[in-house]
Specification:
The chain has 157 residues and is α+β, with helices and mostly antiparallel strands. It contains 2 helices and 5 strands, in the order ββαβαββ.
Length: 157
């Protein structure tokens, strides 16, 4: 079964970096996206931990938003998502010590990547538990994309 992209999903504006880093970095035919938080309109819609004040459906929605922000960063960096494929998705989940459903939270990000990119959104994935994330966000998403045509990195003069 082939999955086609859903053209009704709109990307948000790419969030600016929150510290001293670049939001995206090209290396050969790969594009690395810095960890993305689930910002909506410049703010986190929710804080806390999975297994405490945040349930799995809310965590999935936050992972979805963080992945959309990552797609927006890639789109801004490249000018288009045409020909881009997701290689690796890492989802960090701030959770209590007894919470064991990080993989289900990560599905929120995986599902939206496939919805936006179709088959090019299918990826390898890691879901990682952590005791705390920046700004007390429940979820952070990191992405690696493969580019259809390798572009040379810019040279510094």
């Amino acid at each position: 079964m082939t999955t086609e992209p859903d053209p009704t999903i709109q990307l948000p504006p790419p969030p600016p970096p929150g510290a001293n880093y670049v939001p995206a970095r090209r290396h050969g035919d790969l594009l690395f996206i810095a960890g993305q938080l689930p910002f909506v309109g410049g703010r986190l819609p929710r804080t806390g931990k999975l297994g405490d004040s945040v349930d799995v459906p809310a965590g999935q929605e936050l992972a979805r938003q963080a992945a959309l922000n990552g797609l927006a960063v890639a789109d801004a960096e490249l000018g288009s998502l045409a020909g881009v494929s997701v290689v690796q998705l890492t989802v960090f989940v701030a959770s209590t010590g007894d919470f064991t459903e990080q993989h289900l939270v990560a599905n929120g990000a995986s599902d939206v990547l496939i919805a936006v990119l179709g088959e090019r959104g299918r990826h390898a994935r890691t879901a990682v538990a952590t005791p705390v994330l920046p700004l007390d966000t429940p979820v952070e998403v990191q992405l690696v994309f493969s580019l259809a045509s390798p572009q040379q990195p810019e040279e510094n003069s």
